[in-house]
């Protein structure tokens, strides 16, 4: 598979068209909104046998990027409206899986969750959860930016997040 340049384009309700960012991917990139007001883009680099993600502002400026030299990982992201934070989860598999092969929950090794400041992409904290659940989304930030909830096989764990530096607080002062 050849890497193709792909444009991420915004179309407004008034019919305007604006290129936000051009990315290169060997698979079809996926784009989703990520509160607070960000875009979460994932793609592939099969030439390097890996995957990548990008967190973008609505104007296309890069906030954070991550690359994996291994196809054994999957990326998810979570955030909430009005928050100063977002979280990225990287699922690590216990063994390589061929594309479209059968998947079992025992194939999951770890879930690495990192919490970042939305303003500049600076990492606030990170943790690794062994033997995670096979769910599409296993973590969330609380509305007050003070806790991270992670769904584990036998419980919902709440972790207290470090205080957000005052210079990075959102408009509400949180």
Helix content: under 10%
Strand content: over 45%
Main sheet properties: 4 strands, antiparallel
Tell the overall outline. Answer: globular
H/I helix tally? 0
Distance between the termini: 46 Å
Instruction: Work out the number of β strands.
Output: 13
Radius of gyration: 17 Å
Low-confidence stretches: 170-174
Strands ordered across the widest β-sheet: 3-4-5-6
Overall average pLDDT: 85
Structural class assignment? mainly beta
The helix-strand sequence is EEEEEEEEEEEEE
In oligomeric terms, what are we looking at?
single chain
What's this entry about, in short?
By secondary structure, the chain is mainly beta.
Describe this protein's structure.
The structure is a single chain. This protein is mainly β and 174 residues long. The protein has strands at 4-11, 17-25, 30-34, 38-45, 50-56, 62-68, 73-79, 85-93, 108-117, 123-130, 139-141, 147-151, 156-160. It is globular and about 50 Å long.
Topology readout:
Elements: E1 4-11, E2 17-25, E3 30-34, E4 38-45, E5 50-56, E6 62-68, E7 73-79, E8 85-93, E9 108-117, E10 123-130, E11 139-141, E12 147-151, E13 156-160
Antiparallel strand pairs: 1-2, 3-4, 4-5, 5-6, 7-8, 8-9, 9-10, 11-12, 12-13
